[in-house]
Amino acid sequence: MQSPPKPCVFESDLAPLLSAFVAEKQRFGFKYNSIEAYLKSFDTFLLGRDCKNSLSKELMLEWIAPKAHQKSVTIEHRIHIMQRFADFLNRNDFSAYRIPSELIPRKVHDFVPYIFTYDEIARILAVVDGFQFNKIDRIRLADIDADLVIRFLDWLEVNRGNSASTRNVRLAAIHAFFRYVQFQNPEMLLHCQRILAIPMKETEKRFVEYLPEQVLKELLSLPDQTKKYGIRDTALLCLLYDSGARVQELIDLSLLDIRLETPATIRLYGKGRKVRVVPLMSQTAVILQKYLSMWHLDAARKPDAPVFVNHQGKRLTRPGVTYILNKYMAQVSWMEGKKGITPHVIRHSKAMHLLRADVDLHYIRDFLGHVQIETTEVYARADAEMKRKALEAANLDLPTESQTSWQKDQSLLSWLQSL
Q: For this structure, is 379 an active site residue?
C-alpha cells in the first residue's frame, strides 16, 4: 500500500497563505497534489523578494515570463493557477495583482504551410487544358469555376499519377477556400456552391493494424530495466500502450502531468487543445516511478521538464519514439519478414484489446479522445474474431442429414444392385 503524498513545505513570506490556498482547494475535493509543485516553484521564486504586504504586478509578470523551450500550454496552466491564487488572496484582504486572461498565449503549432512560387502556380494552372494563364495578378475568382477544378483534379490523377487520397486532400483545400469566399463575397454564392458540390472520391478503406496481446507482452519484456535507457524505453512503451496516447501527446508530457499516487493518472493534451485525464494501471505506475527515480526527475523541482528525453537531454521526437519502438519490434518473432510499425499501431492495439474485453465503445471513445463515436467504430468493424463469435452466437444450429433421399429408398437401392 502506497503511503500518502507528503505535503509541500512553503518557506517564503507567503507560506501561510499558500498552504491555506491548497488546503481550501483540497476541502472542496480538488486534487491539488500536482499543482503544489507549481506553487512550490512559485514559493522558491518569492524567496528574497518583498511580498509581505502585497503581490505586485511586477512580481507576477516576472513569474509568468516565458522560459526557454517552455510550451505555451505550460504558461497557460501557470497563469490559470496564479489567477486562482490571486482571487484567494484578494478574498482574504491581501492585495494581489490578477493576471489578465489576454496574456494567455495562443498555442503555436509546428506546422509551416508550403508556399508555392510563381513558377509553380503557373505550371500547375497552365497544364489544365483550356486555361489561358498569363499574369498571376490577372486571375479572377470567376475564372476558377467548377469545370476548371474538376479538370485540375483529373490532371492530378492522370498526368501526375497522384492517388485518390491525394486528390481528396487537394479538393478539401479548395473547398475550405471557397467556403471562406462565399462569406466574404455573397454575390459569388452560387459560383462557390457549384465548387463545393464537387464530391470527394471513394478511397480504399485501410485495414486497422494492431498487435495481438502475446506480441505486446513479448515486446514490453525486451528492454533491460536494470539499465538507464532500458528503464526509459520500458516506461515509454508501457505508457504508450496503457494510456492509448498519440505519439505527440506522449512526447509533450511534462512531469507536472503525471500523478503516481493511487489512483495513478496522466494528463494528455490532444487535438484542438482538448485535455483528458487517463488512468494508469498499477504496474505502469510502478515502472514510471522506477524510471523517474533512476533518472532523478522531480516534479517539485522542475515541473515543466519533459518526461522522456533523448541522449541530448531534449524532448523525444516522433522519429525518436518510432526508432525506439522498432528497435525492440525487430527482436519480436512475430515481426519476422514484416516491416516496422508506427507508434500509432500501439494505440490501435489498445483500442482493439479494450473492445475484445467488452468495454463499451463510448468509453473507448472518451479514453482515446475521439470527438465522434463514428471514429471509434472503425475498431468494431476491423475485428474479425469478434465477427466470427457474433456469427457463431447467431447460428441456429440447423440439423444436417447424413444420408440423401435416394440412399434411404431401399427399393431403389435393391434395383440398382440387381443391375
A: yes
